[in-house]
Amino acid sequence: MVFYIAKNIRAFFKHAIPLSATCSHSARSICSTPTDNSNSPNLEFSPECDEAMRQMLVKDFQIHKDFINVEEENNLLEELELKFKRSRYQYDHWDDAIHGYRETEKPTWNKENDCVINRLRNFAFSTTTMQHVHVLDLAENGHIKPHLDSIKFCGNTISGISLLTDSVMRLIHIQRPQVFVTALLPRRSLYIMKDSARYEFNHEILNNSESFFRGEQVTKTRRISVICRSPPPPPPTS
Ligand SMILES: O=C(O)CCC(=O)C(=O)O
């Protein structure tokens, strides 16, 4: 069963691409052109990201601060700590996509947490979502390498709440890796990644040595994300 679940979850992570294979920038070297950030305070665009691309990303990669409050975060953590109690962080992932993590798929939640999950679903998705919620617990020294979620197992929208810490996510354009956006994901925020952001960009969670936003270091501690996904479209009928 554990093997089945692990295999099933890991199927989301496809096309893990070492950062060095796609681009050679580090967060320190990002130098965004001066821009009006009022529309996207949590996004930092690479200079090669033109205005049309920026507008598309602002639409397709949204970050909503304080989506949950402190009490709701504590309730989620309480239920999740029980779930993770007996599992260890893993450092040897089969396709090297993720380092220092443990994870689970959760089909049901207690009453309070179920309300939060339903709020997420109603807010972030225009259609149905998969029943199981993916929960990913990254150790302080853990990180997720650039990857595209499998199009076979996941539809056009991925949305997650970040617990315990601020962190930095980067989206790198698959065809033009010099085009990328760095995103600050505050603790208790919700991100919604859909359409172009979901299909045209790899995404990653940076490790602490690279974790900078607008020149400031963002030190990630342990991070738990609670992630919902839309189902993949049904196969075409002949
Ligand atoms: O932890 C997160 O919010 C992102 C997880 C992720 O990259 C994924 O599930 O594909």
From TrEMBL:
Protein name (record): Uncharacterized protein
GO biological-process terms attached to the record: DNA damage response; fatty acid metabolic process
Gene3D superfamilies in alphabetical order: Alpha-ketoglutarate-dependent dioxygenase AlkB-like (2.60.120.590)
InterPro entries: AlkB-like_sf, ALKBH7-like
Cofactor requirement: Fe(2+)
Organism: Daphnia galeata
A cellular component term, taken from the record's GO annotations: mitochondrial matrix
